[in-house]
Write a structure and sequence with these properties.
Elements: E1 15-18, H1 24-35, E2 39-44, H2 48-61, E3 67-70, H3 76-90, E4 93-98, H4 113-134, E5 138-145, H5 158-177, E6 182-187, H6 203-215, E7 225-227, H7 228-231
Helix pairs in contact: 1-2, 1-6, 3-4, 4-5
Length: 242
C-alpha cells in the first residue's frame, strides 16, 4: 500500500470513465458524478437506447460535456477503441471506475462453461484490460467495484467470488506499481439491481461512496478496501450477504 490522500477534493470537471454505466450501479455512479459536475463518460455493451437515456440524464444533472461510448470489456479491440475515443475527446481520463460485471447465481455444478467464462472475462479480465489501456492517461484515481463476495466465500457464487477476490488482489498490487495514483476497491454488499431481483441496498448508496472515494473523503491508503456497508452515509448495515 502506498500514499494516503485523506484531504477531500472535488470532481468538478474531472473526466470520469465508468464501465457498464447504462444501468444498475454504474448508472447510479454516473448520475452521482454528474451531480458533482464531472465530465461523465457513459459506456454500454448492448443496450444503446438505455445508455442514451442515461447519457441525457447525466447532461441534465450537470455533465453537459459528457460522452457516450460503446464498450465490450471482453474485447481487446473494443477496449482500445473506447479509450482512444475518450482520449481524443478530452486528452485524459482523471478517474476510471471499473464497474462492468456479471454473475451466475447458482451452484458451480449447474453453471455452464459459458457462465464461468463470462464472469471471469467480464469481472476480472475486463477490469484488468481496461485498466491497462487507460493507465497511460489516468491522472488521479482508479476505483474497482468489488463485492462482499470478494471478502467472503458465498454459496452459489463460487465463480463470482473468485473474480472479486482476484479484483481485490489486482487493486492492491496495482497500488504498489503505480504510487502516483489512488487505487481503491469499493465493495458493495447486497444491492438492489437486476442481479438481485431489485432487493437490497440502493445503488445510490454505492454511488455516493464511489464519488466520496474519488474525492478523497476516506483516510485510507491507496490499495485499500472501502466497504459500502461500513461507510455509507445512511449508516445502514442491512442486506449483508454472509
Amino acid at each position: 500500500m502506498t500514499h494516503n490522500r485523506s484531504k477531500e477534493g472535488t470532481v468538478n470537471e474531472k473526466v470520469v470513465l465508468i464501465t457498464g454505466s447504462a444501468r444498475g450501479i454504474g448508472e447510479a455512479i454516473a448520475y452521482e458524478f454528474a451531480r458533482e459536475r464531472a465530465t461523465v463518460v457513459v459506456t454500454y455493451y448492448r443496450d444503446r437506447k438505455r445508455a442514451e437515456q442515461t447519457h441525457r440524464k447525466c447532461a441534465a444533472l450537470g455533465s453537459a460535456d459528457g460522452l457516450l461510448v460503446e464498450l465490450n470489456v471482453m474485447s481487446e479491440e473494443s477496449v482500445r477503441r473506447c479509450v482512444d475515443t475518450v482520449v481524443a475527446a478530452f486528452g485524459r481520463i482523471d478517474i476510471l471506475v471499473n464497474n462492468a460485471g456479471t454473475l451466475a447465481w447458482t451452484y458451480l455444478r449447474d453453471q455452464s462453461y459459458d457462465d464461468i467464462k463470462n464472469q471471469v472475462r467480464t469481472n476480472l479480465e475486463g477490469a484488468i484490460m481496461m485498466t491497462k489501456a487507460c493507465l497511460p492517461h489516468v491522472t488521479e484515481t482508479i476505483i474497482n467495484i468489488g463485492s462482499i463476495a470478494g471478502l467472503n466465500g458465498i454459496e452459489e457464487l463460487t465463480v463470482c467470488c473468485a473474480t472479486k477476490f482476484g479484483l481485490r488482489g489486482f487493486t492492491q498490487a496495482l497500488a504498489r506499481e503505480v504510487p502516483t495514483l489512488n487505487v481503491y476497491s469499493v465493495n458493495p454488499d447486497y444491492i438492489a439491481t437486476r442481479m438481485t431481483d431489485f432487493v437490497g441496498r440502493s445503488p445510490e448508496e454505492v454511488a455516493r461512496v464511489v464519488v466520496d472515494a474519488a474525492k478523497g473523503v476516506y483516510p485510507v491508503p491507496s490499495g485499500s478496501d472501502i466497504n459500502v456497508w461500513e461507510v455509507s452515509r445512511n449508516g445502514e448495515k442491512d442486506h449483508v450477504v454472509h
